[in-house]
Amino acid sequence: MPTILEVRSLNVRANGRTLLGNVNLAVERGDAVLVLGPNGAGKTVLLKALLGLLPHEGSLAWTPPKMRIGYVPQRVDVDVHLPLCGRNLLEAKAALLRLGRSAIDSALERVGIGWDLMEGPIGHLSGGQFQKILIAFALLGDPEVLMLDEPTTGLDEPSAENIYDLARRLRSGGVTVVLVSHDLGLAYHFATKVLCLNTVALCFGTPEEALTPETLKALYGARYEVAGAGSLRSGRF
Amino acid sequence: MGTSEALSIYAILLGTLAAIAAGLTGSFALMKRITLAGDVVSHIALPGIGLAFLFGFNPILGGATTLLLGTVVIAKLEEKTGLTTDAMIGVVFAASLAIGALVTPSKDLVEALFGNLQPVSPFGLALGLGATALVIGTLWWNRHRMILHLFSPELATTLGINGRRLNLVFMLLFGVTVMLGLRFLGALLASALIMIPPTIGRRLTHRLSHFMAISAAASVLSVLGGLGIAAWRHLPLGPTVVTVASALFGLSLFMKER
């Protein structure tokens, strides 16, 4: 498969502090990349750098350069009093991308939600409903790459599984998925590649190559020393 | 000149269109939570109006000049200092009010603050219609960008939306809308039509399109009602229009949100 993203010596700094240091990775079309790391490890910073939202050093090249990327942020601090509903958001994005109603229908269908959910104020939606609208928003425009930043935070288990199922279906449909998660089980049941981050990149490769007991210990501390990678295969996914 | 003598078809037409522009601009200002900060923007017109009275040129032209200048200064100061919009508006507002009070001849100060209905010339009408078309057209053109930026500046940036430029454009539109109201309402009350009607719209609906339509309608109703009452009872126009708008807000409290 062709390489669509090549990152070399990526560094992100802010106020004299290194948020992300020396990240190297190559992503091929159709990959499912799992980004693992503890809180504050720079996972979200990495996604934002890949999206061009943060200034960075090093080289970062998408092929083609104008890659269609859908992004589901970890959280949107939405003003619950805004008189906006899902319809307004999807219609606004569709208008900017010069897409018709059928494109919105298609995005909703892929996520498995109907127009009824799109009519209520966004401030009245449950966490799961809001997340699905965010994913539909990201899928609008038929992205070649989908970036999901901890998309199941705050969701119950069935809702979380729905989102992972959707990520799998999209991947089998040819979409490259970059997923940030704390769920180590995804490494063996979803990912083709794993990136371990703890401000610096500790590993990158297939799950088998990347997730050694030493890497897990460096990533999460001594408590993973015994559990190790072997027990991950029996995870939920 | 009394209100009834100055009340012409030109004034009614211009007042109605300016009210629509104010209702629409106010809808976005309310969603951006800058209505109160925006209110004080109108006071930036005062030095220009004062200078116009002092040197005998058109007060609207003077007010518009300092208003637009002040809007750009606020945006640039915000960019340079990293402080918030409302903090920068506060600084420029206080300076403008103080300078305005110093330069405005005392006999003209009440008119500068509260407005007075002057006859509308064909040129004034054309200028007003042009400014109204600019406000409504630019809001319409940018509505999708503004909605996305309101929802999430970060997601908007990933779609190529320049949030800083969008904010500057909006503040300029806000300034032009205030300028449209200066003729009727004066520097103190000019932004009332931007502030009050959207609160009525928001009280009554959570649907964006309905919200904007109700805001514009409430604004038009306030202007036409104010014009009629002021002409009938020989009352000053600015305070009458704003009192009607406030009464409509009061009425909306007795209605259910839909």
Q: What is the topology, as strand order, of the major beta sheet of chain A?
A: 5-6-7-3-8-9
N-to-C CA distance of chain A:
25 Å
Give the overall pLDDT of chain A as a whole number.
88
Look at the structure and name the CATH superfamily of chain B. ABC transporter involved in vitamin B12 uptake, BtuC
What percentage of the residues of chain B does DSSP assign to strands (E)? under 5%
Poorly predicted runs of chain A are 225-237
Task: Work out the helix count of chain B.
Answer: 13
Distance between the termini of chain B: 44 Å
* Global Rg of chain B: 18 Å
CATH architecture of chain B: Orthogonal Bundle
Alpha-beta classification of chain A: alpha/beta
Estimated helix fraction of chain B = over 70%
* Largest pleated sheet of chain A: 6 strands, mixed
Number of domains of chain B: 1
Question: In sequence order, what are the helices and strands of chain B, one letter per element?
Answer: HHHHHHHHHHHHH
Count every helix of chain A, treating DSSP H or I runs of 4 or more residues as helices: 9
Total count of strands of chain A: 9
In what range is the share of β-strand residues of chain A? Answer: 25-35%
Biggest sheet architecture of chain B: none
CATH topology assignment of chain B: ABC transporter involved in vitamin B12 uptake, BtuC
Query: Any low-confidence stretches of chain B, pLDDT <50, length ≥5?
Result: none
Spell out the blueprint of helices and strands:
The complex is a heterodimer of chains A (about 240) and B (about 260).
Chain A: E1 3-14, E2 17-28, E3 32-36, H1 43-50, E4 57-62, E5 69-72, H2 86-96, H3 101-111, H4 127-139, E6 145-149, H5 157-172, E7 176-180, H6 186-189, E8 193-198, E9 200-205, H7 207-210, H8 213-220, H9 224-227
Parallel strand pairs in A: 3-7, 3-8, 5-6, 6-7
Antiparallel strand pairs in A: 1-2, 1-4, 8-9
Helix pairs in contact in A: 3-4
Chain B: H1 3-6, H2 9-31, H3 35-41, H4 45-55, H5 59-81, H6 85-103, H7 109-114, H8 122-151, H9 153-158, H10 163-189, H11 192-204, H12 208-233, H13 237-252
Helix pairs in contact in B: 2-8, 2-10, 2-11, 2-12, 3-6, 3-10, 4-5, 4-6, 5-6, 5-10, 8-10, 10-13, 11-12, 11-13, 12-13
